[in-house]
Specification:
Elements: H1 22-28, H2 61-72, E1 79-82, H3 89-96, E2 103-106, H4 116-122, H5 129-136, E3 142-145, E4 149-151, H6 158-162, E5 163-165, H7 167-173, E6 178-180, H8 182-185, E7 190-193, H9 201-213, E8 215-220, E9 223-228, E10 232-237, H10 246-249, E11 254-257, H11 264-279, H12 281-287, H13 289-305, E12 310-311, H14 313-325, H15 332-347, E13 352-353, H16 355-366, H17 372-403
Helix pairs in contact: 2-3, 11-12, 14-15, 14-16, 15-16
Bound molecules: zinc ion (ZN).
The site of zinc ion has 8 residues, from helix 5.
């Protein structure tokens, strides 16, 4: 299974469908439902809860590939979608949940997200009263559920994100307890941070730290709580509304530049599909159910296979040479690029990642990592360092002359 021909790069405007990884190819070439124009009256309110099928997305090949790679290999460290509003970013991220296998989640009746491991670690203080009762009765406090997209509200405060003391419980029950925040609720889910460039830095920092560590600790005075938060992070930003600071930008794995589709046929297809979905979302989703089940199996298989994928020596060497020539400082550059290449190979059912896999993901992993400022800064520093060295030598020579 290892030595297939290398893959060409992805040109998002003109995807070489014949050479995309087999899994992606199956997804992109699915000819699905056309508009269901005889739709029943709108199922008001339900459309919000039922994600648009990932396979029914039109165009945006690069965005779809980046999202898939990020869920195949969590080492990639998430995706940043860069582009204007209304280009389907949120729809695509929510749609991604339709491709993910179910996970074991908290079944806490109080919505506190209690988990067996909280009980194991902290004893009865770690779970709510209702979960404690169920655990003591030998009942499970978890169930299997679908992966959700947790969206961070733009006006979220740090306490909402990491959690804080619940004043109401503190007063009513004379029990001070740290409440888990959005990051803990995002555990095993997708965390979508829309307009990440407009958030306060300390909130973005907390999110990125938790994302990297897979857990986080919140301390309020003498009490503290540690929560699991393994999630796939997806951020979006509209560059027209301000930039993300370079050190925050660096911590996102892949970067997709999302543009609106410029082909009339594509836009018509989107219009038709959105209209059908809004008219009767259940019927629309049913139309896409079979290929979605197959795609979900593909993703599950790729997630297993990626653990086995190794890069060839040539792929490593050329990838590192590319980073060197582009003058990129951050070591995250090659890490993300190689992890994405491994995911790309896994999506193609291979356990070897070749040069072509690196080529396919290079722009996604490396764009906006090079800093002209740092290149110029380092050049300027070399000049000063030389001056320091020359002055030193000059003094040394004068001293030795003086002695002589
Ligand atoms: Zn509970």
């Amino acid at each position: 299974m290892s030595d297939q021909p290398v893959l060409p790069p992805i040109d998002p405007e003109n995807p070489p469908e014949g050479h995309l990884p087999s899994m992606l190819l199956r997804m992109l070439s699915t000819s699905g439902a056309r508009a269901i124009l005889s739709a029943k009256p709108a199922e008001l309110g339900l459309a919000e809860n039922l994600p648009f099928p990932f396979l029914a997305l039109v165009g945006q090949t690069e965005m779809r590939i980046a999202l898939l790679l990020a869920v195949i290999n969590p080492n990639i460290g998430g995706v940043l979608l860069i582009g204007p509003r209304g280009t389907g970013k949120t729809t695509a991220v929510r749609a991604l949940t339709t491709l993910l296998p179910d996970v074991e989640v908290s079944a806490c009746e109080n919505g506190e997200g209690c988990l067996p491991e909280d009980y194991a670690r902290e004893g009865e203080a770690g779970v709510c009263a209702s979960c404690l009762r169920r655990l003591r009765a030998g009942e499970s406090i978890t169930r299997w559920g679908s992966v959700n997209m947790i969206e961070l509200p733009l006006n979220a405060r740090l306490d909402d994100v990491v959690g804080g003391v619940n004043e109401r419980i503190a007063v009513q029950q004379h029990k001070v307890k740290v409440e888990r925040g959005i990051l803990a609720r995002a555990d095993q889910n997708l965390l979508y941070v829309d307009e990440v460039n407009l958030l306060e830095d300390q909130i973005v920092d907390a999110i990125l730290d938790a994302s990297a560590a897979g857990s986080y600790t919140v301390r309020r005075g003498a009490i503290s709580g540690t929560y699991r938060s393994r999630f796939v992070l997806i951020g979006s930003m509209n560059p027209e509304e301000g930039n993300l600071r370079p050190q925050l930008m660096d911590r996102f794995g892949l970067r997709v530049v999302v543009r609106g589709l410029m082909q009339k046929e594509d836009r018509l297809e989107i219009y038709n599909r959105v209209r059908a979905y809004r008219g009767n979302s259940r019927a629309f989703i049913r139309e896409w159910a079979n290929p979605t089940v197959i795609a979900r199996e593909d993703v599950t298989a790729a997630r297993e296979l990626v653990k086995e994928v190794e890069l060839t020596d040539e792929a490593l060497d050329i990838g590192l040479e590319l980073v060197r020539r582009l003058d990129i400082d951050s070591h995250r550059a090659e890490y993300v690029m190689f992890e994405a290449a491994r995911a790309y190979a896994a999506a193609d059912g291979r356990d070897r990642a070749h040069v072509g896999d690196v080529r396919a993901v290079a722009a996604l992993a490396l764009r906006q990592r090079r800093s002209q400022f740092m290149v110029d800064f380092a050049e300027g520093q070399k000049v000063e360092d030389n001056q320091i060295g020359q002055t030193f030598d000059h003094i040394l020579n004068r001293e030795s002359e003086g002695e002589g």
